Queue: 3 jobs
Job 1
Amino acid sequence: MIKKKIIVANWKMNPKTPREAAALWDAVRRTARNLPRVDVAVCPPAVFLGLFSSPGRGNVFIGAQDVFWEQGGAYTGQIAAAQMAACGARFTIVGHSERRALGETDEQVSLKTRAALKAGLTPIVCVGEMTRDSAGAFFGVLTAQLQASLDLIPRTAASSLVIAYEPLWAIGRNFREAMDSQTIHETIIFIRKVFADKFGQEAAKRVRIIYGGAVEPKNIAAIMSDGRADGVLVGHKSLVVSDFTNMLKSANAV
Ligand code: PEP
């Protein structure tokens, strides 16, 4: 089964101005439209969501960085999944470790993932261990996180999810400190097995499992080929136009 690879750009709380955001978006779109083997989901801060021309045309899409689980009402500061969709989003990150560090729980991630699906968004559900211990306790951490974060997801929707495996200790580092491709491969196999136990073999085969954590031009090809990742989630390097466009080209060539 051929699954189209997906490259997710998580801009976090960057850039500072709408003008910079529009320039970054244009540069990504110009490069990506010649790269038919990858889909690109650009996730800017929500305030910039309405800025971009022709989102969702071709293979470049807009993603939100988070959504709220309620559909509307008295929730100051929150943004509903349907509102993100109405402003052009097709994807949303859910349960990023930086949000979990602010107190977001697996149960909330599950509510948000279900809300995103209801609104027609593709959720990119983030999981990952804080540390790797030699006794393998991190396998238990990952299993519990996956099961609880996907608790409310119906079997019929499971294969449309994207799971982003992001070991916390690798996020924001440089490529030398990213996880090696062999370990990424082994962990993706493990995640697929947990997914199969919950949703069945067929859904587990189809779901896209991507890797995030210090992905850079120097390691993206190995992560996607040897690591067998169905894509990558890129943080700091998604803000550097030359690096990110080179990474898209590498991913398209894998
Ligand atoms: C991230 O924000 O999830 C991430 C993977 O960041 P970085 O690429 O900077 O490690």
Note: The longest strand covers residues 5-10.
Job 2
Amino acid sequence: MSDKIIDGKLISSEIREKVKKFGGQLKSKTGKVPGLAVVLVGENPASRVYVKNKIEKTIEVGFTSIEHKLNEKVSENELIDLVDKLNNDKNVQGILVQLPLPKHVDSDKILDRIKPEKDVDGFHANNVGKLWSGLDSLVPCTPLGCSIILKKISKDLSGKHVVIIGRSNIVGKPMAALLLGMNATVTICHSRTKDLESVCKTADIIVAAVGIPEMVKSYWIREDAIIIDVGINRVERDEKKILVGDVDYNDCLKKCSLITPVPGGVGPMTIACLLLNTLLASYPQFGEPTPDLSSILE
Ligand code: NDP
């Protein structure tokens, strides 16, 4: 493997080992095991694969996995009732409602129904507000994973210019809040940004979270830029379905200093961070002080 390639599989397996270790210590102290409830609605094939992976990894770190598979036609009220039940279940420390939900369900309403202390996706307005205020909170898993990668490869981001492409609530915006907390100078781009290519050329680090296959080209990036590719796009090549990122990987690999591959970069970090969040959510629910994230990850 080229030494320019950031091995997300390796970093994520190290995180899962640490989660397992701290979860084991928490169990020895309290006699309780963290539980993660996953709610899956409908038959979306990508969501089913994500959920299957999440459940496998939850069990691997020694946590309890609670799965609720619901029919596509489930009503909003039935979903609210299920979230309420999980909110009050002492065996459940983290609740994840897999997105997207069917169109007839108001996703924001469901996500905001989850108790903030069990909101391991970090999407509840209370957690979003805390993140932007620089307070401890549960942080969305994908940007948390990107920030852990960046801390690992570049200890100090002070003054570095990071260009984030994408302003979604799931990736782009929380990524910006985390990077500001790491003293980076942050530019957020989106579909109305003018001359994206020129903006990218000014970046020390690019975080691409767009959903457009291989959009970022080598002539967009500075020599030695660090590239974090969040994108997961299914495309057809030579009659085969493959996954590619939002960055033209083979093209940018030559010019950048470091890059996350797709698959095997940010993707596995997301699941590791979900387990990390479930661990972090469990301490206060078990009446224990929450350790610093850095002490878990060191
Ligand atoms: P969204 O569709 O919610 O957001 C995409 C963002 O990209 C929007 O802010 C949009 O701008 C912006 N955008 C779209 N077209 C352009 C363009 N031509 N130029 C500049 N910006 C543009 O996507 P997500 O944030 O949910 O996901 C982004 C990607 O990351 C997807 O490929 C997704 O599959 C992947 N992903 C991967 C995860 C992982 O675990 N690795 C987890 C989550 C997502 P505007 O706001 O103006 O519409």
Note: Residues 142, 165-168, 170-172, 189-193, 196, 209-212, 230-233, 246, 266-267, 270 surround NDP (CB under 6 Å).
Job 3
Amino acid sequence: MSRSQEVLDEEFVRLASIALRIPESRLSGMLKRRVLQKVSRFFPDHYRFDKGIAGLETGTALFKTDEGIETVKGFPKIQRAMMLAPVLTTHFKGTTRVAVEEKMNGYNVRIASIKGTVIALTRGGLICPYTTEKVLEDVGEDFFRDHPDMVLCGEMVGPDNPYVPKDIYPDVDSISFFIFDVRHKNSGKPLTIGEKHELCGHYNIKTVPYFGEYSLDEAADSIAGIIRKLGESGREGVVIKDPEMKLPSIKYTCSQSTNSDLRYAFGFYNDYGRDFFFSRVVREGFQAVEWDEDEEALRDRCCRLGESILEPMISTIKKRQQGERITEDVQIRVRSLETAYKFEEHLRRMGIDAQFDEPQMVDGQYLIVIRKFNQSTNDRTGAILNGQLW
Ligand code: ATP
Ligand code: MG
């Protein structure tokens, strides 16, 4: 590390210590261990927590401004209900009603205005240049002009999506941003569900579909009905929230979405962590029991699960056998090639090995296919086909 970089870090540590009320020595230690990392390039003086610590979630981003340090807290992890009915009574004890929202399937983004510039942060606290270009199409600058102290948290969904491409939302042809939480900068404190809807309505900002409030005793049945409907249209599930946003939210998802995750991931079976597969299979077990399925429904569930596991794997093995390389193809659509170049660098920084195809002009924008190399699945499959032992 250069001398001037060290001086910059010292200044940052001093200011961050005041803002976060964490001793300077502890922050310096975290910088050394790279729990706290400086991110250069797209925004000056930006730091991120690569791992969470008490009170500061993973992905918390810190910015040095003229006034000191501004903090955009990491988005809190949402725990999953496996058995809906018992979870509702234990988790929401003390409340009488719950708010139910659609859980949209894309990637988590936090938007904030820092020194007058609107930026989009992905889960880990990096500024994504592609997302930043895109969110500005959905969220006008006027919101942040009036509320520079707010953070909009939402999901980027749609097919032109370099992280989680899904073509399951009829109104989204390319990629679009839907808000699920509005939070205060620095404290991370959320607005209530009512306040969020009022504020977003006022600025014409899209929010995730809202199913309304349910009394706690009818919620499990109502949510099961919503989940069945959502599943039929390939959607992911719901997030169940305390209308006052004082208790943590919980999530519950559809069997169809679990299967579509498995179908996708088993095509790259060696690149995904084993827990990804295991936790999804377990979900299916609990849902089948809670919904007390008859023989026919159970058989359907078993077949669906087996097909979601084996079919993509067989197709990957055959592809490799024919000498094809295993890639995960995604696409982006940009107005300026500059954004694509910056995004290429962003992916490299995240350690993703990808190749960008030549841009094609579609409706005045550049459509670019990105081939992510799933090296581990590729190599392992090739080796096994050549006789390697497991
Ligand atoms: P993590 O919980 O760390 O994000 P994960 O991959 O397990 O990791 P998901 O299973 O996708 O996360 O569930 C949590 C995510 O769901 C949130 O981070 C958010 O991006 C997304 N989400 C979609 N719709 C909503 C909603 N209505 N309210 C809150 N979060 C939502
Ligand atoms: Mg998700």
Note: The mean pLDDT is 95.
